[in-house]
Design a protein that fits this description.
Elements (H helix, E strand, L loop, with lengths): L6 H15 L6 H11 L6 H9 L5 H13 L1 H5 L5 H23 L5 H15 L13 E2 L5 H4 L11 E2 L1
Antiparallel strand pairs: 1-2
Helix pairs in contact: 2-3
């Protein structure tokens, strides 16, 4: 094995060794097991399998890309990847994500979705807010120091607020 000077080199060497040890394409069962590990819902697996069946050679990219992003390896690899290869990987990965998740997540939010988002935001942060923007949320500041009260009080509200 050649000497490896960084994590990206180690991943490249690992892929070379993997290709030598396993010179075959993924089977449907192997892809199914990998997709289960990724955390897809059971009803999402058939569509993901159909999409990946046409792109078996690229299946490893789908499974290794999130791990590499999580490890911070992708930024190290950018020097080693050509622009065309990087664009192809991102395009293909985006197409996979779209194909699997577009019906559930990539639509205009319904009233139920909005209510669920408001509730989740309030549980997490302790105050209600607007979707997509905190700068329009006005919170009353009950423990504002007296010296600052005039500076942070709006006339129409009558008490100090945090914007």
């Amino acid at each position: 094995m050649k000497s490896v000077d960084n994590v990206a080199g180690a991943i490249r060497e690992g892929n070379v060794i993997f290709d030598r040890a396993y010179p075959r394409e993924y089977t449907g069962d192997e892809i199914y097991r990998e997709l289960e590990l990724v955390g897809l819902e059971p009803h999402e697996l058939p569509r993901a399998l159909n999409f990946l069946a046409a792109n078996q050679a690229k299946a490893r990219t789908l499974f290794s890309c999130p791990l590499q992003i999580q490890m911070g390896v992708l930024k190290d690899m950018m020097g080693a990847l050509s622009e065309r290869t990087a664009v192809e990987y991102v395009d293909w990965f985006s197409a996979c994500v779209y194909e699997v998740f577009h019906e559930q997540y990539l639509h205009k939010p319904t009233q139920r979705d909005i209510e669920r988002l408001y509730l989740a935001h309030e549980e997490r942060h302790g105050f209600s807010g607007m979707l997509g923007s905190l700068d329009c949320t006005h919170l009353a500041c009950g423990k504002c120091p007296n010296a600052w009260r005039g500076q942070f009080t709006r006339g129409d509200i009558g008490e100090p607020i945090i914007v």
